[in-house]
Design a protein that fits this description.
Elements (H helix, E strand, L loop, with lengths): L1 E6 L5 H15 L6 E7 L4 H9 L3 E4 L2 E3 L3 H4 L2
Parallel strand pairs: 1-2, 2-3
Antiparallel strand pairs: 3-4
Length: 74
């Protein structure tokens, strides 16, 4: 498994987009699963919900939020 991680003090929608784009690019190069992740000290709730809906994992101040399998398949 590979992770593409976008790190920012405050996570925003651009961070989510970059993590997704990088995961798509890396998935073209490796045969393994690639998981997009955003990490930071703060993540507004609506941004976190958007990330999870698009299959992006969120690490906020050490707390991990994983998309459900249903969310990741959207």
């Amino acid at each position: 498994v590979w992770l593409t991680v976008e790190v920012s003090g405050t996570i925003d929608r651009d961070d989510i987009q970059r993590a997704l784009e990088r995961s798509i690019l890396l998935a073209r190069c490796v045969p393994d699963e690639v998981i997009p992740v955003v990490a930071g000290m703060r993540c507004p709730e609506e941004v976190r919900e958007g990330a999870l809906r698009t299959g992006v994992w969120v690490v906020e101040d050490g707390q991990v939020f994983a998309p459900t399998s249903q969310e990741a398949n959207r």
